Amino acid sequence: MTLSPLIRRKVCLLLLLVALGCGVRGCRWFKTPAQLYRLFLHLEIPAEATHFEGKGNDNPLLDFMSWGYFTYDLDRVAWQELLRHKQFAAASPWNRGFTRISPKDVDAWHLKYYSDLIRRPITISPQHTVAYRATFFPYIHTLVYDSTTQHVQHFVAGMRD
Question: Please, which domain of life does this record's source organism belong to (predicted)?
């Protein structure tokens, strides 16, 4: 049985895409939540973090399509240490450490986008929460911290602008 030239081209293109995504350092498309966290933030998960969960996708060909959503509990000391983190993977004029934003800046569209990706609703309580945003090029991080429960919601998006 022979394949038509069109099907052969499609198979070759698919294999090329997989080969580009799975380079010398290993496949970037299929990562565990811990590997994604490390890749996106250039930081190991804090040892003090408990109940760590996450989902995401690192697109090796189009960084702007990468995304991640992580949840974990972090005590106040570890939270402050996380906010001081400024180890960028590469020099870029867009790199910016964590700065405080209003929790209202994490708008309904933002929450719906991530809810659709992880297939469950995401809510943010307006009471007792603070929010921070940082750019670790090519990723934008938004952290929402509930000071009473010490729960962190960590949103990652590839830069689109």
Answer: Bacteria
